[in-house]
Amino acid sequence: MDPTKLTADLDAFGAGLSAWVATALPNLLAGLFLLVAGWWLAAWAQRGVDRILDGQGRIDLTLRSVISSLVRYAILAVVLVAALGQLGIQTTSVLAALGAIGLAIGLAMQGTLANVAAGLMLLWLRPFKVGDYIEAGGIAGTLKEVGIFACQIHTWDGIFQFVPNAELWNKRLINYSRLPTRLVDLKFGIAYDDSMDKGRDVLLELAGGDERVHPDPAPQVFVDELADSAVVLRLRVWADTSEYWPLRRALTKQGKQALEAAGLTIPFPQRDLHLDSSLRGFAGRASAEAARS
Length: 293
What we know:
By secondary structure, this protein is of the alpha+beta class. The chain has helices at residues 3-54, 61-86, 91-108, 110-125, 165-169, 196-208, 244-261, 277-292; strands spanning 133-136, 139-146, 150-154, 160-164, 173-175, 181-190, 220-226, 231-240. 56% of the residues lie in helices and 18% in strands. A five-stranded antiparallel beta sheet has the order 4-3-2-1-5. A hairpin with a 4-residue loop joins strand 7 (220-226) and strand 8. The protein starts with a helix and ends with a helix.
């Protein structure tokens, strides 16, 4: 090996390295500075958005966290592209590659993206909020958490349900807690021999004596049906949604007690049988034969 040539090669390499460092080092330091500053700025912006949204009582807690996280990641994405550009990397190629990767991931995760899209629509339209009692797709319970991918629901019998957002978005959804008032609708049967007007007065007095019953709209009692064994009186009252089940249970129990205390009868289903003369004779002969045997 020629020492002279080796020395010349090392000198050329050192000169090239020095030239590259002199050119690239400032860009490298600028890129690192952008990353550090961008990371700090993204965290600061997330905290600022959280504070702003905390002062807005109308915005749901889940929606606040989603918005602040989107702001943070958007800033980080812009900073990353700017840092790559500072290093001399063609950002258009990077964006094209990221787009291709995103398309491939999207095709492979269609179900997950469907849940994300459904979650965003649920957060935007807000058909429910945390704490509401809802029913959708055969699932009913109290909503505990609304997420981007799924919702957490606790049923009345203490069962945890983790429901993908697409299952809620694509089904008819019933929100029992959305409106401030609900109608309590009850039926009471009295005998045909009893006074329908007296039964109506008894139920109206019962409803009027409960402070949970709203005076407007006024309670209603009317004859709803002439059933096989009873005249069905229907009681309808309005109450706060939070008082629906306690009031319904109380009126059901107290309604029966009030009707009985007023001398009215709550009949049970019964059927009268009438035998003609030929059947009576046959029944008599059968009884006599059975007695002889």
